[in-house]
Amino acid sequence: MSGRQRQLDQPRQVDEPEAARQAPQLEPEQPSRPVSESDGWRILSYMLGGMILYGGIGWLISHWTGIAILFPLGMILGVGLSVAMIIFRFTRT
Length: 93
Description:
70% helix, mainly alpha, 4 helices, elongated
């Protein structure tokens, strides 16, 4: 066998820096921020504010148009947007 054929038959040796680049890198866990009493009040205010704001907008539109379903739909939309904002704000670090 020639020298070239012997090189092709042997498994390729990878130098250490290249192997380290190819391995998936796991991000270290970031410490979570401490929960405070003000977080609960902030969540409550987001929930109430969303219901009041979008419920009020739904009530106004339903008052003008005569479509009674817009008030509860506005409240439900307000709660949904409030929950989305709470998740977005409190899951970011």
